[in-house]
Design goal:
By secondary structure, this protein is an alpha/beta fold. Helix content is 30%, strand content 24%. The chain is built from ten helices and 15 strands. It has an eight-stranded mixed sheet with strand order 1-2-15-3-4-5-6-7, with helices on both faces. α3 packs antiparallel against α4 and α4 packs parallel to α5. One of its GO terms (molecular function) is beta-ureidopropionase activity. Pathway: Amino-acid biosynthesis; beta-alanine biosynthesis. It is found in: Cytoplasm. Belongs to the carbon-nitrogen hydrolase superfamily. BUP family.
């Protein structure tokens, strides 16, 4: 069995760990055991017919005397590209709209309030090629582009907040490209956008060939279902990036990504979960799935032969809670929809227990970081 073939860690555990020990193993890996969410039979049948993984879990909080539960249902969608990478651009976009639209319909059957798609969901993750054409043709307006208009329709139809990460073309500023998540409210209004703060320069992630670091800071969006933020892909490797979304009040931070197994899979299950713990909030990690092949060969600058693919996108999307618990992941090999019911009261309950924010020395960190970014900074190293 190759690393690209096995479906999930959970499936391997179920197949090889005796039932008597399996519960303890799951607790060590995933934290407290989560209840499975009861999903409508119509949704289960639709997922089977459309051939995608469907899972549902519940993150409960303790009952309180003064606050009622603040429950919200979140849907994470991971998917392969639908057409070959050399198909006409508009056909590729339209095919992905159709596929993801069908999955959103199932999310609506499951009562989802907020849905988030994977990074650059309307296109192949072609930035490995370093070619400009045709990939820049996938870029569109965040405010009124084809995909945003499509998401507005979804939001209105299903009374659902839609988070749509796209390749943005900013015509107001000379057609500049950005890696951007568009936030559409459940009323169908574009609440705003959040641009990718950190751009990778590692392996085949040649993204700075196309766009640079974002300039929208750490926006948090007040929705009917809670305060949310979008920390795109590579930003998950930066603890201070998560922190700043939390400082601005995010209760759920989404991390739409596109990352391959050879580079990041051992880190995947740790980073968003650690961010949930450290910042007293929920985090949602979404990764695309499949292997995308490109017509022209490209090299990685590592001395190895030219190749036609980036590697295997391993899916495994999951949700993590501030108490350290997390859902099992979606499939490593199949499209999928993960539905989770979150009680946002858990954020404050965990904060009251652990007090990470209260005990954080932010004024001290800020002062020392202010000095550290100066050209004449001298590290505080005590020598004999």
């Amino acid at each position: 069995m190759s690393g690209n073939d096995f479906e999930s860690l959970e499936k391997i555990l179920e197949a090889h760990v005796p039932e008597a020990e399996l519960r303890d193993v799951r607790t060590l890996l995933f934290g407290r055991e989560l209840k499975k969410l009861s999903l409508p039979q119509s949704a289960i049948e639709a997922a089977a017919e459309q051939d995608f993984d469907l899972k549902g879990y519940v993150f409960e909080a303790s009952p309180e005397q003064l606050r009622p539960p603040r429950t919200v249902r979140v849907g994470l969608i991971q998917n392969k590209i639908v057409l070959p990478t050399d198909a006409p651009v508009l056909e590729q976009i339209t095919a992905l709209h159709k596929r993801v639209g069908e999955m959103v319909e199932v999310a609506a059957m499951c009562g989802v309030n907020i849905v988030c798609f994977q990074e650059a969901w309307t296109m192949p993750f072609a930035f490995c090629t370093r070619e400009r054409e045709p990939w820049t043709e996938f870029a569109e307006s965040a405010e009124d582009g084809l995909t945003t208009r499509f998401c507005i329709q979804l939001a209105k139809k299903y009374n659902m907040v839609v988070l749509s990460p796209i390749l943005e073309r900013d015509e107001i500023h000379g057609g500049t490209l950005w890696n951007t998540a568009v936030v559409v409210s459940n009323n169908g209004n574009v609440l705003g956008k959040s641009r990718k703060n950190h751009i990778p320069r590692v392996g085949d992630f040649n993204e700075s060939t196309y766009y640079m670091e974002g300039n929208t800071g750490h926006s948090v969006f007040q929705t009917q279902f809670g305060k949310i933020a979008v920390n795109i892909c590579y930003g998950r490797h930066h603890p201070l990036n998560w922190l700043m979304y939390s400082v601005h009040g995010a209760e759920i931070i989404f991390n739409p990504s596109a990352t391959v197994g050879s580079l990041s899979e051992p880190m995947w299950s740790i980073e968003a979960r650690n961010a949930a713990i450290a910042n007293h909030c929920f985090t949602c990690a979404i990764n695309r799935v499949g292997t995308e092949h490109f017509k022209n060969e490209f090299t990685s600058g590592d001395g190895k032969k030219a190749h036609h693919d980036f590697g295997h996108f391993y899916g495994s999307s999951y949700v993590a809670a501030p108490d350290g618990s997390r859902s099992p992941g979606l499939s490593r090999t199949r499209d999928g929809l993960l539905v989770t019911e979150l009680d946002l009261n858990l954020n404050r309950q965990v904060a009251d227990k652990w007090n990470f924010k209260m005990t954080g020395r932010y004024e001290m960190y800020a002062e020392e970081l202010k000095k550290a970014v100066q050209h004449d900074f001298k590290p505080n190293i005590v020598k004999e």
